[in-house]
Write a structure and sequence with these properties.
Largest sheet: 5 strands, parallel
Organism: Variovorax ureilyticus
Keywords: Activator, Cytoplasm, DNA-binding, Phosphate transport, Phosphoprotein, Transcription, Transcription regulation, Transport, Two-component regulatory system
Pfam family, one: Response_reg
Radius of gyration: 18 Å
Main location: cytoplasm
Order of helices and strands: EHEHEHEHEHEEEEHHHEE
Structural class: alpha/beta
Number of helices: 8
Function: This protein is a positive regulator for the phosphate regulon. Transcription of this operon is positively regulated by PhoB and PhoR when phosphate is limited.
């Protein structure tokens, strides 16, 4: 079985080496790049299964790299885990908004890092479901991984696709952030509820005119409704 390749983008060699050793011991194949330029070279040569991306890098910041990779069709679906010494909420949100799937605040334990890597890789694994769901003029096809509004295709990221699929399959019901984390992300402990809000925001942006169908229910969570005025 092929080992998942993890690209470590970290300018501190001692941290990178520690991460690489732990990844190797746990069945991953680590590759190290110390800045954005060498990381881009690695990605041009071979797409990794996941990127561990340090926020503070010489030259291009991790944030800039994440945005750059999310814009490129070849790299837009690579899972990105931000490594950051910044524990502040706005910084975490900035990382998620730039396209990161999750973040780990330094210092972190090996177990936490491995759990988050496995969780992100697990959510990216395709689900074997052949089902088409239609709510009003919004349609989602899990077999072809397509979303359409009034017959027109919409661009929806992998996590947002899963989130929309769950909301559409349980339309009109309110789901708390904790329930969405459990059902969409899997029942692991490390993702924060704030992550749900960021992905809902991204989902609404992707839905464009159909965005009002994803309703915020104050104090309770989110629901998808066909009753919204679109």
């Amino acid at each position: 079985m092929k080992k998942p390749r993890i690209l470590i983008v970290e300018d501190e060699s001692s941290i990178a080496e520690l991460i690489a050793v732990n990844l190797r011991h746990n069945g991953f194949e680590p590759i190290w790049a110390e800045d954005g330029e060498s990381a881009q070279r690695e990605i041009d040569a071979f797409l990794p299964d996941l990127v561990l991306l340090d926020w503070m890098l010489p030259g291009q910041s991790g944030l800039q790299l994440a945005r750059q990779w999310r814009k490129d069709p070849r790299t837009k679906s690579i899972p990105i885990l931000m490594l950051t010494a910044r524990g502040d909420e706005p910084d975490k949100v900035a990382g998620l908004d730039a396209g990161a799937d999750d973040y780990i605040t330094k210092p972190f334990s090996t177990q936490e890092m491995l759990a988050r890597i496995r969780a992100v890789l697990r959510r990216r694994a395709p689900e074997v479901v052949t089902e088409r769901v239609e709510i009003g003029e919004l349609a989602l096809d899990t077999a072809t991984h397509r979303v359409t509004w009034q017959g027109n295709p919409l661009k929806v990221g992998p996590t947002e696709f899963k989130l929309l699929g769950f909301l559409m399959q349980h339309a009109e019901r309110v789901h708390s952030r904790a329930q969405l984390l459990d059902k969409v992300w899997g029942d692991h402990v490390y993702i924060e509820e704030r992550t749900v809000d960021v992905h809902v925001k991204r989902l609404r942006e992707s839905l464009g005119p159909a965005a009002p169908m994803v309703e915020t229910v104050r104090g309770a969570g989110y629901r998808l409704t066909s009753q919204a005025t679109v």
